[in-house]
Structures are given as C-alpha cells and as structure tokens.
Design goal:
It is built from two helices and four strands. It is an alpha/beta fold and about 130 residues long.
Length: about 130
C-alpha cells in the first residue's frame, strides 16, 4: 500500500514536471517569435509583392498596392520604406505586430485577417484607413 502511494506520488510529480516543461517551451517559442517580429524583412520580399503603379500627391510614380498574403511572415519591418502604399494584403501570415504600418500615412485598405495578432491597432492608423 505504501508502494502504491509512492508510485502515485511519482506519477503526480512526473505530470507536474511535464506541464512545467511544456509551459516553459511555449514561453521560449513566444519570445523567439517576438524577437523575430522585430527583425527586418528582405526588401526583395516587399518588392515582389508590389503592384498597381500610380501617381503620388507630388506627381511621381509609385506602387500603391502590396499583396503579401500567405507568406508565413512573422515580421513586416521594412515595409515602412514603401511610404506610398495605400492597399496592403497581409492575411494568412503569422504577424504579431503591425507597428511598422504606422509610418504609412497613405494607407487606406488593410487586410490582416488570420494572423497571430494580440492587438489590432498597436500602431496609430492613418485617418483614411478602412
């Protein structure tokens, strides 16, 4: 009977350790993703997504739309360099933050559905954003 009690105790401790290990593993993965979400993305990825050439307010030509749907992206750092973008599709990625979009003052249309966002507006959205 005492052996059964010790065995049950060992099983309980093993279960607790397993839960603790899984919890720690999840926390490490979250930290890794947060660090990755701050890293700049290759400009080539953004350049390949650009389409719909149009005139800017000062009359120069620039790409106005970007389609980055389903790219398994964690970060969009670097997108702020494409300051004339008005329409961005970022659906079906793994984004944790949208902060780089705060620099895009002409952004009017944004699709960020199906991402890992905790807060939708962790940036100051431009007045035109739908």
């Amino acid at each position: 009977r005492r052996q059964m009690s010790s065995y049950a105790h060992l099983l309980s401790v093993e279960s607790q350790l397993s839960e603790y290990y899984e919890s720690e593993k999840e926390q490490i993965e979250k930290k890794k993703k947060m660090n990755l979400s701050k890293q700049a993305v290759s400009p080539d990825i953004f350049k390949r997504s650009l389409h719909t050439l149009g005139k800017t307010a000062n009359g120069t030509l620039a790409y106005l739309k970007s389609d980055l749907a389903g790219q398994d992206m964690i970060s969009i750092v670097g997108i702020e360099k494409f300051k004339h973008l008005q329409d961005i599709n970022l659906q079906n990625n793994n984004l944790l933050t949208l902060k780089p979009l705060g620099a895009l003052k002409h952004l009017a249309i944004l699709d960020v559905s199906h991402n890992q966002l905790k807060r939708l507006f962790d940036f100051v959205p431009p007045a035109n954003l739908k």
